[in-house]
Amino acid sequence: MIRTALIAFTTTVAVTAIAQIAPGERRSGAEFMSPSTQAMQKDDTSNPGMLAALEGETLWNAPAGNEGKSCASCHGPADKSMKGVAARYPAIHQSTSMPVDLQGRINLCRSDNQKASPLRFESRELLALTTYVALQSRGMPVSPPDDARLDPFRNQGETLWRQRFGQLNFSCAQCHDDNWGKRLGSAPIPQAHPNGYPIYRLEWQGMGSLQRRLRNCMAGVRAEPFGFGSDEFIALELYLMSRAAGMPMETPGVRP
Amino acid sequence: MAQEFIVDGDRISAPLTSQPGDAVRGRAIVVDRQKGLCLLCHTGPFAEQKFQGNLAPDLSGVGSRLDSGQLRLRLVDSLKINPQSIMPSYYRADGLHRVGTNWRGKTILSAQDIEDVIAMLASLSEADAGGVQK
Questions:
Q1: pTM for the full predicted model
Q2: Structural class in CATH, domain B23-122
Q3: CB-based contact (8 Å) between B97 and chain A?
Q4: Exposure winner among A134, A136, A223, B18, fewest CB in 10 A?
Q5: Minimum-distance CB partner of A6 among B7, B41, B106
Q6: ipTM value of the model?
Q7: Of these residues, A109, A172, A175, A217, which one is catalytic?
Q8: What is the pLDDT of residue B1?
Q9: In this structure, are residues B100 and A224 in contact, taking their beta carbons and an 8 Å threshold?
Q10: Dihedral through CA B74, CA B75, CA B77, CA B78, nearest 10?
């Protein structure tokens, strides 16, 4: 039996203000890195993510699938047609009225327009194409669409953001809104902005998507991670993009 | 599964096990980043440990500030002291969401682990905090 002598105390402090990062306080994840890792991200000749972007450019122009069409067959040069696209994803897919993220959109083009099989999550090809498309938005502000159909999904994302989970019983917000800038062991806690993804992570010795990062955070608190491409991750991505609105895109980011 | 225990004000006065806590074992648990995880958040008088976190109060001298019963409730379920706390409940296995399959239905520490950690924390006195152990 647990005697609840503390009930009176706990109910009086149950409601606390929801902390959010003020616009002037927002910091890109790159600002929490060492100067040498920052320099690696800044200089295209040393940023390993640029190799993935180059590979993405090749794939952009390569015919695939039963239609024998490349991305370029429909969209032309990416530096024009893809400018600003990554900055406004996830967005509503017209024929289903459901939100898709950039990786999902690329795979829809594969299946619907190229009649090709979808690319596997975290595959080299999907990361390369996503990086190449996102590179066309570098320097542009994160611009979530002003589309009311996205609101319920953004709200779902915010609910997940504030939900404690895992054996360690943490919410995303407790680390990234309430304790950013502090150190969890040796790791500085960043604010969790999505504007540099896909990233090259030195620890992975390779590229990774935003969803891979989110799965790492969930595993870190000993939670069962959501699946790649799940509704939950799309909702979290939508919330993260609205939270980062106006911040410049930095893909490909480099992380330690 | 966690066994039952009695919360008495801000304490769990009775030890969770009949075997007395072992402070040496407790120290090993506290500094173990896979097991105790304490130094992810706390600093403390563990000079050889690099990369101590700074999300939580320093543990130096905590044995002078809190008695064993208070330490026990803090470890077992710190949410009973502060419902907003980020300190994990080390001896609780229910009422959690989406716990990973490897961890489901298990407490972070065992009852004996908790008693060992308490024995170690109780030995951290203010007198040591100034220099001896640091």
A1: 0.91
A2: mainly alpha
A3: yes
A4: B18
A5: B7
A6: 0.92
A7: A217
A8: 59
A9: yes
A10: 40
CA distance to partner chain A, nearest, from residue B17 (Å): 16
Provide, as residue numbers in chain A, all residues whose Cβ is less than 8 Å from the Cβ of B84: 13, 16
Structural domain harbouring A24: 1-256
Which residues from A are below 8 Å from B102, CB to CB?
A: 222
How is residue A139 written in tokens?
């320097």
CATH number at A197 reads 1.10.760.10
pLDDT for residue A8: 35
Helix/strand/coil percentages in chain B, nearest 5: 35, 0, 65
Other beta carbons within 10 Å of B110: 16
| A109 included as an active-site residue | no
Q: Which of A218, A61, A180 is nearest to B100 (CA)?
A: A218
Tokens of residue B71, six digits: 């330490």
CA distance B128 to chain A (A): 23
Closest-CA residue of A relative to B32 is A185
Contact A42, B116 (CB under 8 A): no
- What percent of chain A has a predicted confidence (pLDDT) above 90? 90
Task: List beta partners, residue A208.
Answer: A199
Position A3 scores a pLDDT of 42
- What is the number of structural domains in chain A? 1
Q: Is B28 on the interface with A (CB under 8 A)?
A: no
